[in-house]
Structure formats: structure tokens, C-alpha cells
Amino acid sequence: MNICRIGPLLLILAAGPLYANDSVNSELSHVAGGAAMAVGFTVISDHYWSQEHRGWIGFGISASLGVLGELAEKATGKGPFSGLDAASNALGAAMGAFVTDQWILSPVVSPDSHYAGLNASYRF
């Protein structure tokens, strides 16, 4: 994997602590964070675990971490649980996992898949 593809995502993840509210910029930051986490977990899943379900694994871990982060905020008294933040994170996770699974990583060819086809051509 080329570092130029994931370099911008690493910069997003290396950013310092951010303080959020329910503005558009805040929700876009949750979308970007969810997407960045999903890309990372999808790539890790492709390398170490199930390649067939790598997108679902990346989405699931990223979205779960978003919900857990909101629950931790509520538990520590730093703020209430924000469903909008959790949903924005899940939206970003879905986009990041889908894009990574479909267009960044190589296709998965399952050994137990059986295909039959017919190739027909007609010359005019």
C-alpha cells in the first residue's frame, strides 16, 4: 500500500484534541474521524483477518468506537450522549469502509466461489 494514499488520513488522526458542538463543522469532523478509523480497520482486517468481510469489520469497529466514545463522554460527565455525533461517525465509517473495500484494496476472490458463464459474440 502506497503511503500517499493513506498519508492524509494519518494527518487527520494525528490532530490534537478537538472540542465539538452540534455545528456543521463538528459533524463533518465526526464523519472524517469515522471514515479515517474505518479505512484503518478495513486495511488491518484485510491484512490479518477475514478478507471477505473486511468492509463490515472496518465499519463495525469504527461505528462501535464512535458509540463507545459518546458513552464515555456521558459517563465521565464531559457532556451528554449525542446521537447526532454517533450517527455522523457511523456515516463516515460506512463511507470509509465502502470506499476502502471497493476501490482501494485489491478484490477478494473466494476459493469456494463457482461461476459459470457464457460468452457469445457476433461479428457484423
TrEMBL record:
Residues making up the signal peptide according to the UniProt record: 1-20
Keywords for this protein: Signal
Protein name listed in UniProt: Lipoprotein
Organism: Aeromonas molluscorum 848
